[in-house]
Fold this protein.
Amino acid sequence: MNTKINLAGIEMKNPVTVASGTFGYGREFDQFFDLSKLGGIITKGTSLKPKSGNKPPRVCETASGMLNSIGLQNPGVEYFAQNDLPFLRKFDTAIIVNACGSSIEEYVELCKILNTLDIDGVELNLSCPNVKEGCMAFGNSYEGVKKVASEVRKVLDKPLIVKLTPNVTDIASIAKAVEDAGADGVSLINTLLGMKIDIEKRKPVLANNTGGLSGPAIKPVAVRMVYQVAQAVNIPILGMGGITSGEDAIEFMMAGATAVSIGAGNFMDPYTSIHTIEGIENYLSKHQIKNVDEIVGTVEMN
Amino acid sequence: MPTLQLAELVEKKQIKPDIYKYSIQVPEIVKTAKPGNFIEIRITEGTDPFLRRPISIYQLIPEKAILEFIFQVKGKGTEKLSQKQVGDKIDVLGPLGFGTFKTEGKQKLAIIGGGIGIFPLYELAKEAKAEGKEVYTYLGFRNKDFVMLEEEFKQVSTNLTITTDDGSYQEKGFAINYLEKELTEKGIEAIYACGPLPMLKAVQNLAKEKSIDCQISLEERMGCGIGACLGCAVKTAKSPKEAPEYWHVCKAGPVFKAQDVEI
């Protein structure tokens, strides 16, 4: 059985990665399992300068999922390069940095630095719903996405994956912008904008009022969007949204994802990514499939 | 280091209509847990409720490899947890939190708790008392009906003061009023607190005023419990409003030095 895949020029031992913002810089999960078992690690969203994040409460539970409004709290790229990257590099797994910024200049500046680091690729975050500037503001139009991705492409020689927001009317056209900008891959979906109200206080539970919805609740939306994007572009897809098992991952791959990310599922059980890898292997052996990439995009529509 | 364990529920006791004490067998966790640590429980094998529930540790009984925790039924997660029966397995992650209660070098301790915030203070009192320290405990409740664990805390305290807001049981008023009165007389060297926010703020102020070491256990809505999601933020006291710096309850805490955090 061969579980190796190549995502946008990044070689991975299996198609399972962990999603940005759900795995920190890996240290917290190193206590539970060997990070080398993962296909790849997408780091916490990292910016040019440190960011302190939003006021608490930042998270709350919803039906089969959760809302978060962390606000991209991170120590900045310089700190990451000195302290976290050497740690992550000890493991035999692909390291992809999720890069976020509040202006085109900032994205470009950040990616110039990332281009010099020992990383396998960049996931450009054009989709965080919890910061006032940048991110989703660029990510919700064809022009915005194409502009940022094109500028970043000019300074980044490493594989470039652009992460999309689902909070748009036509996800396929946004994905097309990524392809037209010359990026190597697309990842989706980031969280869906949501809100929860505390009916005793008549106030939203999150201090930021709204937050991003993740977890199994959003999986069908994510699978549909991955399918639509797969029909629209020829670059590979990193699929995510509510995956908690091998079966879930297989669904995303059949819809057109070359690889997948485990996000909020890491909170439910720190071993979710490992169980997902095992689940994929079980499916392959049960169905006597030799190479995992044989299942990518094989869904047959009714 | 935290581990994930499928623990057997060996004893279940209802101590109030909506409050339960569970004893679970978790050898690995009991070995390394310290007073102030907490655990996270996965409520179901499915995905709803989705997130684990953070719950403080009430007592460690190493010789039996037993950990006890007490919880109040507050929502659908704790409701489901309360339906577990003796013999059932519970998915537990722990011990969690690097910030625990520290008593090294302190001989005379004041422990103050309010309502359901008293649970994480028991193991602290028990261990301190066993080490020969003087433990003055102050527990505050809304009224007579809310008073609990009196006998248990009496066993692990040099002196126990129970207060009720309306005076319907023992002393009338807030626990902090009695702590304040006796602070100097008893020669208290450090205060340990867990309870509702107004109580913690009052304790924080008192400790600052009297320049006494003070450690408080905080709670905040949590995602992962292990420091990865950065959900359970708490603002550091030193950072300015316009450029706040946040620590996280599950990682730097849940126990903090009172002067280090803004609550």
The CA atoms of residues 111 and 121 of chain B lie 7 Å apart.
